[in-house]
């Protein structure tokens, strides 16, 4: 959903507010799809520790891994919305991220 606000104070400048939830609906994405995408990213990260057992143990022991996994999808979407609202990401960039989620979802039931 896009909301345009026209402020006379700013001389006709329009502010655009885009909602991540609405964009997810456009891509037919559910929270489970986002969770799967983030799990794939974490799996890639953890596979990077293959030859660094001590670093992996430290990651698990410190609770950092647990913290990264706890409510990861809600935090991810919240951070994405905050970046969009704050202007550090634009709608095109967010749509690119959501396309990555869609691509990951499409590979979910394929054998690698």
Notable traits:
single chain, 112 residues, mainly alpha, two-stranded antiparallel sheet, globular
Topology:
Layout: E1 2-7, E2 13-18, H1 20-26, H2 31-47, H3 53-62, H4 64-69, H5 72-86, H6 91-106
Antiparallel strand pairs: 1-2
- In what order do the strands lie side by side in the largest sheet? 1-2
* Largest beta-sheet characterization: 2 strands, antiparallel
Helix amount: 55-70%
Backbone structural class: mainly alpha
Mean pLDDT across residues: 87
- The shape, in one word, is globular
Number of distinct beta strands:
2
Unreliable sequence segments: 1-8
Content of β-strand: 5-15%
- Helix and strand string, N-terminal first? EEHHHHHH
Short précis:
The protein has 112 residues and is mainly alpha-helical.
Tell me what you see in this structure.
With about 110 residues, the chain is mostly helical. It is about 65% helix and about 10% strand. It has a domain of about 80 residues. The protein has a two-stranded antiparallel sheet. Strand 1 and strand 2 form a beta hairpin. The protein is globular and about 45 Å long. It starts with a strand and ends in a 6-residue tail after the last helix.
């Amino acid at each position: 959903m896009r909301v345009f606000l026209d402020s006379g104070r700013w001389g006709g400048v329009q502010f655009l507010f885009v909602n991540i939830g609405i964009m997810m609906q456009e891509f037919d994405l559910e929270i489970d799809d986002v969770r799967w995408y983030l799990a794939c990213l974490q799996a890639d990260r953890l596979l990077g520790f293959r030859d660094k057992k001590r670093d992996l143990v430290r990651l698990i022991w410190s609770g950092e891994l647990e913290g990264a996994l706890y409510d990861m999808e809600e935090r991810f979407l919240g951070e994405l919305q905050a970046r969009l609202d704050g202007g550090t990401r634009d709608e095109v960039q967010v749509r690119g991220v959501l396309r990555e989620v869609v691509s990951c979802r499409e590979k979910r039931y394929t054998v690698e």
